[in-house]
Design goal:
The complex is a heterodimer. By secondary structure, chain A is mainly α. Chain A has three helices and no strands. Classes of the chains: A mainly alpha, B alpha/beta.
Chain lengths: ~90, ~475
Amino acid sequence: MQMTRQAKSSKGKVKTSRAKSMRGKASRKIPQRDALDDLVDAAARALDLQLEPAWKGAVKANLKVTLALANLFVDFPLPDDAEPAPVFTA
Amino acid sequence: MDTAWAHASEIAAAVSDGRTSASAVVRAALARIAADDPVLNAFTAALEDRALAKARAIDAARLEGRALGPLVGVPFAVKNLFDIAGLPTLAGSKINRDRAAAQHDATLVARLEAHGAVLVGALNMGEYAYDFTGENVHYGPSRNPHDVARMTGGSSGGSGGAVAGGLVPLALGSDTNGSIRVPASLCGIFGLKPTYGRLSRARTFSFVASLDHVGPLTRSTRDLALAYDAMQGYDAEDPVCAQRPAEPVGPLLDRGSEGLRIAIAGGYFRTGAFPEAQTALARVAAALRVKDEIEIPEAKRARAAAYVITAAEGGALHLGRLRTRARDFDPAVRDRLIAGAMIPAAHVAKAQKFRRWYREQVLALFAKVDAVLAPATPCTAPSIGQQTFVLDGVELPVRANLGIYTQPISFIGLPVVAVPVPLAPLPIGVQIIAAPWREDVALRIAYALEKLGVVRANKPSVKGGK
C-alpha cells in the first residue's frame, strides 16, 4: 500500500489529490506512445537489453525524471573550454 | 561496563587498562547481534570465529605488555560492499553471491584492525548502493532501532541500524550521494563523509567511481575522530586516494567552534524540509549562535547533475549484469539502472563540466565562512514501504529524494559531519559542511555541539516489533 507524508508547502497547496485524479483518468485510457517509448525500445535494442514489457513503464518513468533533471543544467552557459571535473593524469 | 552503549573510546580505554578484556567485549557484541539482529536485520554475516580469534590475540598481546592501538578491543562491522577475506562481497545484491570470496580485507578494514579494532560482521545495505531507504528485496529491510517499523535510511542501512541499536559502536559505510549521512540522520547517530579522495576505497564494490566516498558511523564525535584518524593515509591501490599525509583530528577536537565562522545554507536548502528538519537546524544554529545565511549557488542544478552522473555511471557499471541477469536485481534498482544506461552522453559530459564550475563557486564561499549548516534529510524516518512523500507540494518518491540536501554537497566532495538532534519521537540529523580537507573544522563543531548537549545519540527506548 502506498503511503504519503506531506511537508508544509511554501505555497500552502498540495498537488497530490489533483495528480492522483489525473492518474486515475489516465489509467482508464489506452496509454499513448510517445518519443520516450521509442527511445526506450531503441536503446534497449541497441544495448542488447531484454526488457520485459512489465518493466518498460518504470524504465520510461525513470528516464523521464532523469532527462527532466538534465534539462536543469544542459543549457547552463559554460564556455567551450570549460574543463570537466574529473582530470586524468598521465 | 555496559558495552552495548559504550563509546569506542571508552571500550578501548577499558581494554587497554585491563578493566575488561577484548574477548569479553567481543563476546558481548556477538551475543547482542544474536539476540537483536533478528529484529533489526542490520547484519548479513557475523564473523564469530574470526572475531574471537582476533580478540584472544589482543588479550595475549596485552598480557605480554605489547603496545595496543587506540581502538583496541572495539568491535566494528562494515557495509557489505567492503571486501572481507573469505566472503563474497555482496554489495546488497543477490547476483554477487556468485562472486568468488574476497582474498583480502578492504584497506580500511585492515587499517582499523591494525589499530586494535575487531571486525565482527558484514552489514545489510540497499542493493548496489543505489538507495536512500535501507530497504532490500533480497535480504529484507534494515530496521530503525528507534521504531522498527521505520526505515534506517540508506544505502548504509545496516551501518545505521547496527550502531544506533547498540550492536556495535562503530561501523563503516559508503556515501555516493548521501548514503552515510541519510542513515546517520534517520537513526540518530554521527556520520562522517570525508573529503573525496581522503579515505581509501580499495577493495570496496564501487557504485559511481567519480562520486564514491567511504567513512565511519558512530555514537560520538570522539569515536568518529578515532576511527577517521586510524584510517587516514595514502593508498596506492585506490587511484582516487590523495597523496596527502595523515592529518590527525583527535587532538584538535577540544578547540571547539571558537573562532570559526559558520553560516546556515539558504535558498535551496531552506525549501522542502518538514518542520522537524527545520527545528533541528534551528536548534543547532542557536546553540552555535549562528544567524547568518549563505547561498550555495545553483544547488538545485548541482543535485540534478549528481543525479544524472549517478544514473549514467551506475547504468554503465551494471550493463553486463543487466543484459544477463536482469531478473536477479531488485526491480526498483534495476529499472533505474536500465534508464541510466540510456542517458545521452552529452548530458553526462555537461554534468561533469557543470560540476567543476559549481565547485569553483562553492569554494569561493569558504573565503567568507569556515563551515555551513544544512539539514541532512527533509524528514525523520519514513515508514518501511512508504513510497512517496510530499515536498513543497509535490509528491515525490522517497527512494530518490531522501538525499536532496546531501547530494549537492558530496557532488563536489566536501567533508561533512552529520550530527544527531534527539527530537521526540524520532531523531534527525544536521549537516556540518566544511571546505575540502578540513574535516577538522566539521568535527570540532560537532564536538562542541555534543558538549553543549544539543546533539546526542540517544539510546532507543522503543524497539517495537517484538
